[in-house]
Design brief:
Blueprint lengths: L4 E9 L2 E6 L2 E7 L1 H11 L4 E5 L2 H4 L5 H10 L4 E4 L5 H10 L3 E4 L1 H5 L2 H10 L4 E9 L5 E5 L4 E6 H11 L3 E6 L11 H8 L6 E4 L5 H10 L4 E4 L1 H4 L5 H10 L11
Parallel strand pairs: 1-4, 1-12, 4-5, 5-6, 6-7, 7-10, 10-11, 11-12
Antiparallel strand pairs: 1-2, 2-3, 7-8, 8-9
């Protein structure tokens, strides 16, 4: 049985961790390096940083934060947001990131996925897919922090990303993001059953039971949350204990 991963996500804007609901109404929560170091000590399997305003503001991702995190964190971490070129990918990996996430730029230039995979290996390439359900019954790919509808079918885009060399998908439901009613199970299941690479479920977790549920109902490889960890509603330990009690194979805290 493959061990399931529990991943805190730190959305960063102007150097601070923020969180909102449905990608809006952002509130400031703290220092990203300090929070990342704490999560590392508390038993996070991995971490994900997303510079959520980098694409809209046309600036580079937070390289200094990445360097400081690499000095203070001892679990793998992914960085995304504002990744537009192969040079951006190179810069982040050199700064200490283990993986680089790409979303809007990958949609605009799918060859970026292939180029990054060939140069650094697919294990370094995470394609982030923000998906929203539309009246046509399909999940559309959203870009620019969930604000722009591309009209692309999210399931078809997931297939394409895998074919181009993505090593992992970060799947976020715009509909459930920050709502805390649970992960979007239909969307997650549809994507997981379409691809062979690992998928991280994101958007909607409000309790440890939601993690156990998404692992039980889908073959997702990892599940991600922000609000419940950042606001100290639940700890990583509580999530792992709940999952273990419900038969989910998770890594014990301290075994890294």
């Amino acid at each position: 049985m493959i061990v399931k991963r529990i991943i805190p996500c730190l959305d960063v804007k102007e150097g601070k961790v923020v969180k909102g609901t449905n990608f809006v109404s952002l509130r400031e929560l703290g220092d990203p390096v300090e929070m990342a170091a704490n999560y590392s000590k508390e038993g996070a399997d991995e971490l994900i940083f997303l510079d959520i305003s980098a694409t809209n503001e046309g600036r580079n991702t937070m390289v200094d934060i990445v360097k400081n995190t690499a000095r203070n964190v001892f679990v793998p971490f992914t960085v995304g947001g504002g990744v537009r070129t192969i040079d951006d990918v190179t810069q982040l990996l050199k700064a200490g990131a283990d993986k680089v996430g790409m979303n809007s730029a990958a949609v605009a230039n799918p060859n970026l996925i292939k180029e990054a995979s060939l140069r650094f290996g697919s294990q370094c390439v995470v394609v982030a897919i923000d998906a929203k359900k539309f009246p046509d019954g399909k999940w559309h790919v959203m870009t620019h922090g969930g604000s722009k509808d591309t009209g692309m079918d999210a399931i078809e885009w997931a297939k394409t990303a895998e074919e181009l060399g993505a090593g992992e998908l970060l799947l976020t439901s715009v509909d459930t993001d920050g709502v805390k009613d649970g992960f979007d199970l239909p969307l997650t299941k549809a994507i997981v059953e379409t691809v062979r690479i690992p998928v991280i479920a994101s958007g909607g977790s409000g309790s440890p039971d939601h993690f156990a549920e998404v692992f039980a109902e889908t073959d997702v490889s990892a599940a991600l949350a922000a609000s419940i960890f950042h606001e100290n509603t639940y700890s990583i330990k509580e999530v792992k204990e709940t999952c273990a009690k419900k038969g989910v194979d998770v890594r014990e805290i301290g075994l890294f």
